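Protein modeling request. Please complete all fields; requests missing the sequence field cannot be processed.
Requester role: graduate student
Desired output: 3D structure, token encoding
Chains: 1
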Amino acid sequence: MKLPTISIASHSVTRLIIGGNPYSGISHSSAAASKAMIDYYTTQQIIADLRQAEENGINTVLARADKHIMRVLNEYWNAGGTIQWIAQTPKDTEYANLNEYLQIIARYKPIAIYHHGGTTDKLYVEGRLGSLHENLKRIRDLGCAVGIGTHDPLVLKHCYTEGFDVDFYVCALYNHTKHRELYLPDDRFAAFAAIKAVPIPIIAIKVLAAGRNEPHDAFQLALENIKPTDAMAVGMYTQFQPDQIHQNAITVAELIKEINNEANCRTGSHGHSGSRRSL
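Delivered output (279 residues):
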């Protein structure tokens, strides 16, 4: 399986990234569903899913930098796995000092670290987003690509216009901070407008609305509305659909090929229109 890639700093990342929320029991559905994920995702099962991802051309996992995930990834790599890790910092309630915790994360050699979206949004509301500059510098000093996550397109545009020193952003297609588990369709178009306007690589999350959206149509909508230099991180839950990773990889590869062919037909070349967008 050949999946196209984007560049994040010096790293080549597939446009479909496997998301780690299911491994941490984060269903965005119900307490029972989250517990079922925790029961299913033993260390052995997470390793099996990561192996299946690599076999299907996915070269990167985006997952929380909690001690459980770091231990499992370490075991996977020791067994020969090569998948790259983009690390999400935990919530601000899960560490005493972020700079000290970043040093722990860096021991496991992620290719990138990004600041937790919910915490970013909280800092924005409180008028304290400027406090991120020190943390972003620390990530860069640790030798990792630097990112900021958010669920709010207004925060994405604010960070870009304020010139935060990042290599990429992670942006939800649904405004989870504002609407919590209400996945409102119109949220996606506000997110798409911001993603298109920011020329830095962006990883779109919540593409499937935590399993509420039909994959083919949701992937198609996202791919048609994000930039060719952007990617999608998608949680994949294999308990009831063992081939879900395979099917998602095939769907995304085929959709990208179709979208690229249509774009080439419209432009009469292999280039892009070069239209300028404003924030």
